[in-house]
Design a protein that fits this description.
alpha+beta
């Protein structure tokens, strides 16, 4: 079993593509999830050109992974692509039920990409949290707290401290240091081969 550090954002399309990979890795290894804050605090509405650019990324992810996307209804004109609420929702669930941090992120991803739900909306995020037995009042109490806002910002800062340049990014712990396993989407077999090679070389 390896210790892995996973930097991601629920509203990063390649992280959505990577969701089955990281879920499979978590069945064999210890995975710590850290939110990256891809577009945290964004206030500008999407224009047509930017929307098309993002959906082009979605097309590439779908081609690589066969995951479902709602291209027609996703990110409507004027959508504000602020990823902080979705990240904070994962951090909230992580604080309440740590083992559900990855499933919560996957659920947000499905809602956003496949079902065209607005996961910048607090109530939508609270609805998703109920899938994991967290009632609306409990989720909202924690989600809206100063403590959770600060905890989310701390995870963003941690990504900056590790100089994470894109998402998904995966690190492996060797001794007392973290070593890169790569940035961006890779299929499960390639990631497992890297883990096995690093583990064998340092055994």
């Amino acid at each position: 079993m390896a210790d892995l550090l996973y930097f991601a954002d629920p509203m990063c399309s390649w992280c959505y593509g990577y969701s089955s990979v990281i879920t499979a890795l978590a069945e064999k290894h210890h995975v710590e999830v850290v939110m990256g804050g891809l577009r945290a605090g964004e206030t500008r509405p999407l224009n047509t050109a930017y929307r098309q650019q993002i959906q082009n990324h979605w097309q590439h992810v779908q081609q690589a992974t066969d995951l479902p996307f709602d291209f027609e209804n996703g990110i409507p004109e004027g959508f504000v692509y602020n990823t902080e609420p979705a990240c904070r929702a994962v951090v909230t669930v992580q604080a309440l039920i740590p083992e559900y941090s990855l499933p919560m992120m996957a659920a947000i991803q499905r809602a956003f990409y496949a079902q065209a739900e607005n996961v910048t909306d607090t109530n939508v995020l609270a609805d998703i949290a109920t899938e994991f037995g967290i009632a609306h009042p409990m989720f909202l109490l924690n989600f809206e707290s100063d403590e959770m806002i600060a905890a989310t910002a701390a995870q963003f800062e941690r990504a900056q401290q590790y100089a994470v340049g894109g998402y998904p990014t995966l690190l492996i712990k060797r001794g007392d240091r973290w070593r890169s396993l790569g940035m961006g989407y890779e299929p499960l077999n390639m990631v497992e081969e890297k883990i096995a090679a690093i583990t064998a070389a340092e055994a």
